[in-house]
Amino acid sequence: MAKATKTITQAMQYPSRYAAWFTTTQALFNTVASFYFEVITAHEQVLLLSSHKALHALETLTHATEENPDPVMPLDAIAPQVPALFRRAAIHAALGSAHAFETSLQKWRARKEKAALKKKRFTEHPPVPPRTWNRSPTFYKGQWKGRTASSILLKLWTGASWIWVNVRLLSRDLPDGYEPGSPSLVRHGSHWRLHTPVEKTFTSPGKVAVQLAHAQTRICAIDLNLDHHLAVCTIQTADGSTVATTFLSGGKRVNGRRKWLLGRIARNRRKTGILAENEPDNLALWEKIRHVDEQVAHLISARIVHFARQHQASVLVFEHLGKLKPQKGRYSRRGNSKRAFWMKGRIFTNAKYKAWNEGMITSRVNPRNTSRECARCHGLIVRYHAKQGPEPEGYTPGAPLAWCPACGMKGHADRNASLVIGQRLRTRVHHQEKPRAPLLGPGERDEKSSGVVRSQDANSKGGPSRRRARRHGTGKGHGTAHEDHARMVAPSAIPRPLPLFSEL
Ligand SMILES: [Zn+2]
């Protein structure tokens, strides 16, 4: 079984006096959580226990019961009358922070030892435990009740006592088919919102190779661009026929808007004569730029997934991002192309998790020459503008039309690239079916990847992925192979480009 999780944010309507109670509840939650962080620091062996046993151990240390009348560090001394479920939520928050802190401390020690071995100077400061606590209070069942689509009862700390209050929930309802988890109260500026994690389980969709073994399987191949058509998607069947195409535009508008905003920042900087990064005016402009990118990445990725679902595709395939080609020119032009490139990465990451929530998997292929290769005969194409006439020559980067001198294919260049991307996935899966000789030298072979090249996609969980990906990349073969289902639920923020690619 596979799992998909997401968080639903709901705005709330409440009398203004509740806001003060939300604040006192949050303050108490953080007091209790930081107290437990101290307890864990004093009893580090707790971190070796399972989460259930750690909870029990911490309660024995702090909570008085009949069998345990004198706990070592009583919670009551800090905060009296804390309900059991509120305490447990705070303990879990503290355990989470303590584990994270422990991990970063271990990593720091490892780096320090490594530097000492190489006799290098090591100046990095060790990580410090959290000085202040600003966690959002989580409400375990028992701290909330009576949830409907439009309201929920929450148990709040007023500073003197615990009371139940009823708040109205606005905006979106919880989605069908998802199981809600424990909600938390999150402050957004002067407003408070309710965040609810939701989870659904579904039958695991199966690996790319398994899915493509059926001729009826449909894949959605996506060519992402920096300019006018941000994404061009084609639906292809596993046996190679093309079913549908869509062009998702908007790139020109985004680029224009972003470039204009960057230009204003540049002018402000010129005026002040210094890099006024924190000028209130520039802060607002940067915020706008981020907002534009974020919104477009969400919109385009949602439309990609919608299109794929509409045509019953079960696999999305992109090309690896490749490298950012630095642009020459003014600040606004350079900055703009960099941000357009980042946005491309964000469209991919968003599409990947949105597709997973719909039960689709995502794969990536080698990007080499996808826009120069003819989808029909694999010869090199000519890219041209319509004004260049019917028999154009050469390759004009970014031109919309494609013509193949070898087979006479004519069409849209981005659509051609999208077809090539789909073909690469099929070719790769087809190649993988044959038994292969070891890719790496003797003794170098990775057990897990026997016969299959693992890429950064599958490897990025651990540290050495980049080096291994490069080694594989130069060895032979393909950009991506395995898909790691567990990881797809929470894809990493920005996919790293694979440093070297070799031809298929
Ligand atoms: Zn051709």
TrEMBL record:
InterPro entries: Cas12f1-like_TNB. The keyword Nucleus does not apply. Residues 464-475 have a biased composition (Basic residues). Pfam families: Cas12f1-like_TNB (PF07282). Residues 425-504 are annotated as: Disordered. Keywords: DNA-binding. One of its GO terms (molecular function) is DNA binding. Residues 347-421 form the Cas12f1-like TNB domain. This is Cas12f1-like TNB domain-containing protein.
